[in-house]
Amino acid sequence: xxxxxxxxxxxxxxxAKAADRARVLQDETGVQPCLxxxxxxxxxxxxxxxxxxxxxSRKAGIASRSIVLPAETTTGELVxxxxxxxxDPAVHGILLQHPVPAQIDERAAFExxxxxxxxxxxxxxxxxxMAFGEPGFRSCTPGGILRLLEAYDVPIEGxxxxxxxxxxxxxxxxxxxxxxxNATVTYTHSRTRNLPExxxxxxxxxxxxxMPNFVRGDWLKPGAVVVDAGYNDGNVGDVHFDExxxxxxxxxxxxxxxxxxxxxxxLEQTVAAAEAQSETAVHSLATxx
Length: 289
Ligand code: NAP
Fold this sequence. Notes:
Elements: E1 3-4, H1 8-29, E2 34-40, H2 44-59, E3 63-69, H3 75-86, E4 93-96, H4 106-111, H5 124-132, H6 140-151, E5 160-164, H7 171-180, E6 184-188, H8 195-199, E7 204-207, E8 225-228, H9 241-245, E9 250-251, H10 258-286
Parallel strand pairs: 1-9, 2-3, 2-4, 5-6, 5-7, 7-8, 8-9
Helix pairs in contact: 1-10, 5-7, 6-7, 6-10
Bound molecules: NADP nicotinamide-adenine-dinucleotide phosphate.
């Protein structure tokens, strides 16, 4: 029978640990970790995601600062806002909600985030750290996927992992992290030929496409481990759950699989950023004449 890889409980554990660390930091240094969220435009789904992240932050003892910019914001205006937050010592983590309106150069905006505050793992600096297998902030969804696979003792080393999707926030970094864990990784995307045949060779499938029920049961090798990172209208993933569950050895449900892990990683990394920055502040104070 297929095993469900549930993210909810593991995420709650990670958030509780992050909350403990936030409390200790505040008791010892007076610093409360602070996450700034930046939302451009009025897309209702993005607004809901941002609100959810702020609520969870507050529950974990992390202060949140909310910046909402109009839909017609230019790249220059957004970059200026992100630089201001990057230079603000009271802000430890910055999250720019993706996607931004089409007139904005999203890469330029991401690169305006100080890597020390890039708790969502969106800068080239964070990507390079993931690609080289070096420590650093992870893109939250891929980071959450890896933690989930580890928690469920999924053997990654030597496994063939097929990642469906190559977006800079999900597919690409997910493949990089799997590679750093010694999987043999195949990336697939909208131009890939014979996708079902390739997926059938996978020990681990990561679906990050954005199309409901896209991956079918007959695409899977019996016993494959299936990670469904998709989240589509009506709480539907990118994998046809019932068909896949009949073939897979383990599968993440939607909702309750990858989603909660994403927020848990964001909070964990925000607290880690605050810890690192307050340490730097203490050290720089210590060097004052
Ligand atoms: P995205 O930026 O739209 O990327 C989608 C990827 O899927 C692209 O690389 C695209 O290929 C590929 N693709 C599209 N059609 C395909 C096809 N027919 N065959 C194979 N590949 C195809 O989406 P995203 O931001 O990565 O998000 C993907 C999914 O994850 C969405 O359902 C989203 O809601 C969900 N998500 C969940 C979380 C969470 O916390 N759980 C977080 C972020 C995203 P090309 O590159 O060739 O266009």
